[in-house]
Automatic annotation (TrEMBL):
Protein name as catalogued: DUF676 domain-containing protein
Residue ranges occupied by any DUF676 domain in the UniProt entry: 48-146
Origin species: Leptotrichia wadei
SUPFAM superfamilies in alphabetical order: alpha/beta-Hydrolases
Signal peptide range: none
InterPro entries assigned: AB_hydrolase_fold (IPR029058), DUF676_lipase-like (IPR007751)
Residues in coiled coil: none
Organism taxonomic ancestry: Bacteria, Fusobacteriati, Fusobacteriota, Fusobacteriia, Fusobacteriales
């Protein structure tokens, strides 16, 4: 009997060890260190009339996820592509630690340029900061802009946004594995009191783009209604009618689709309602 109990104890110990090792491996695979990629030279006077474009990836993502967008717009915008870890902090902490400092740097740069532009009238003194965010990054951006309204905010594109959460974040075990999946995942549940559902309707000019094709049948079994493999189309929508479905694209393939680039380009070129009112 003692030998049987000993075997059970040893077996259980090994099983626990295997689970811990597996969790650590997964956590390391999902973690990506903070870094920022800038696609212009700060001392290049020829670009000081250009607006800024800040790119934010989604959950467990990397700056390379947004590379196609960066390459498409790098000649006409000063691009900052922010890579930030999503498995350590909450959405609020991610905003404070990784997003806010970069926007402050841009604001300081604009302020410095505006000082010189008062002397040189050939420079545009109304430089805007635009954003393109993907998936979870859209919620972090909404939080940042809610807490830090920008006077020179341009336009915002939300791609595949869980605007009212995703059913994947409703799965019971999600909030039990913060060391592996991260603290931010349960913040994007569809519950009325979740972080993302407390952000409210944006008060700035934005557009939503989302696909309607899944490449993950298992996830789609959990998600209710039509989805892109991660986010339901129903919960992606907000009050604005500026909502576009990029046919036959998934949650991630949408980031490289030419139609996505066209929609973003046309949106950025379109007249801003606030600017029209000022005129």
């Amino acid at each position: 009997m003692k030998e049987i109990m000993k075997d059970i104890l040893i077996g259980s110990t090994f099983k626990v060890a295997e689970i811990v090792i597996a969790k650590n491996i997964i956590a390391k695979l999902l973690y990506h260190e903070y870094k920022v990629k800038i696609y212009y030279k700060k001392n290049d006077d020829s670009r000081k009339n250009q607006n800024f474009l800040v790119l934010l990836h989604g959950i467990y993502g990397k700056s390379s996820d947004m590379e196609s967008i960066a390459q498409n717009f790098k000649d006409n915008y000063r691009i900052i592509n922010i890579q930030y870890p999503t498995t350590k902090e909450t959405a609020e902490e991610i905003s404070d630690l990784y997003i806010e400092p970069n926007i402050e740097n841009i604001k300081e740069q604009i302020c410095s340029e505006n000082f010189h532009k008062k002397i040189n009238k050939n420079f545009n003194q109304n430089v805007k900061i635009n954003f393109v965010a993907h998936s979870m990054g859209t919620g972090i951006l909404r939080y940042y802009l809610k807490e830090n309204p920008l006077e020179n905010l341009g336009k915002v594109v939300f791609i595949s946004p869980p605007s009212h959460g995703s059913h994947l974040a409703d799965v019971p075990f999600v909030d039990k594995l913060p060391s592996m999946l991260g603290k931010v995942v349960p913040q994007f549940s569809t519950k009325k009191d979740s972080f993302v559902n407390q952000l409210g309707e944006p008060d700035y000019n934005y557009m939503i783009l989302i696909g309607n094709k899944t490449n993950n049948p298992l996830y789609s079994m959990i998600i209710r209604g039509k989805d892109d493999g991660m986010v339901p189309l129903k919960t992606a929508k907000m009050k604005s009618d500026n909502f576009r479905i990029i046919e036959n694209t998934t949650h991630t393939s949408i980031l490289k689709d030419k139609r996505t680039m066209k929609e973003i380009s046309e949106f950025f070129k379109s007249s801003d309602l606030n600017e029209e009112k000022e005129k």
